[in-house]
Amino acid sequence: MTRDPRATLATGPLGPDHHVAVSPHHLASSAAVELMGSGGTAVDGAVCANAVLSVVAPETCGPGGDLFALVHAPQMSAPAALNASGRAGSGATAADIRAAGYAELPPRGPWAITIPGAVDGWFALLDRFGRLELDAVFAPAIELAEHGFEVSAELADALERLRPTLIGQRSAPELYPTGRTPRPGDVIHRPALASTLRAIVSEGRAGFYEGPVADGIVAAAEGAIRPEDLRAPQAEWIEPLGADVFDRRLWTIPPNSQGYMVPATLAVFERLGSFDDPADPAFQHALIEAYRVVAAERDQVVADPTTAPIAPDDLVDPERLSALAELVAPDRAGRYAGLRQAPGGTAYLCTRDASGMGVSYIQSNFMGIGSGRSAGATGVWLHNRGAGFNLIPGHPNEYAPGRRPLHTLSPTLWTDGDRLALLLGTRGGHYQPQLLAQIAADLHVGGSCPDDSQAFPRWVVHDLAPGSTSRVEYEPRFPRRTIAGLSERGHDLVPVDGWMTGWGPVSIIRIEDDLRGSADPRVSTAAAVSRPAGTPRS
After folding, report:
1. Any catalytic annotation for residue 408?
2. What is the per-residue pLDDT for 3?
3. Catalytic residue among 265, 346, 426, 501
4. Whole-angstrom Cα distance, residue 161 to residue 408?
5. Domain-located, residue 296
6. Are residues 184 and 270 in the same domain?
């Protein structure tokens, strides 16, 4: 794995008077820190970074997708939580899709396109917590789109893999300017997306939810989304979901997000014994089984907030989690009901400004570039989050107009009393709770620093079919005794070739005795960037 030499893996130890940003791309991290250094808040920086990622990493995110965020400022007892995930349009029902001959919702196609919520999320965040004008927040992204940027290895790989799906779309020419897939290091321009971002700056939400982008969304969804659907705001400030884990308060997004799985997994893990060594096979067995026993029920309990069968707080009720922990055998891998696998195309980033405001921020197009359909020639690629629905009559997550689908996005924000202590998240579909639980356990139980936690080998559970045993793919850098102990406990272990580059990057900002940002070494462009407050802009 060759890293971009401009991508810095770590910042710190730093004093509190620093701005820090960690994201999947060094251009986004740098833009966020520059903006915070010019008077912007951590929210200004996060939205700026998201816009830059929309330009340089469209295989992960963009204005055609959804957004969740947690924002904490000094003296806040709980973070503000934003659900900016879009709803299904009014032009189709599950019965219509079943009548077309489908038993499951096709992962790509018109029904999988839900109303994009990210742009409404941008405005909700900036209106409440931003300080700068829109043109300043979006200027770095517009400049890169107009003047060009170097294609990363990750983007080149994604464009080659997705070429048969994307090449016929009207927004494809700016991604394939010569008709072929660009190579790493090639410079491409995205004038169509730059024009769309300029329209958002000058016209507000109407620059996206009306006019050419809106027309393109309606056409791509083939009537499943109607113009009047786009006029309804998608972003909503909600109550965050909090749970006590490792003597901290872990905050996340309640359903329709699967975020509850992170505190639930860690709370079950805590109940399974006293551990302190991540290389101990008992430690990793407990973590794997804690995740699996929680994951087994996800598809039955995560749905639109209006139809979810269990209240958010009840999902992390201590008695309920203790009952789940009792299902885990300390010396044997169990069999559980299983859940649907969901691949991800997502960008997670976190920012913290010198005033102490922190943002845990995740935005996604879902499966690569999502639906594979663009909103006309606007440079906007539309997500396929509707694939999170099912077609089971009467199920709380059944596709229906106005509902939000099950979402894999799982940002976390940790507090110690009223003090911000940790910002942590990743991309990775149904792998997100697995990766976050491993990092959090290593940080809080194993006592590692963020950089060591990033470098520690990881596992992912793949086979989650009903009644399955535990098939675990793992990075071969685990100690032999760890793998031997897991094998003895009945886990089906499959080593990967080197680092797991397909999932992550995990981004971390930890605020304890000092301030540290840490980027994931598994993705070449991932970067942590910092600068002291008051430093002149370069």
Report:
1. no
2. 81
3. 346
4. 23
5. yes
6. no
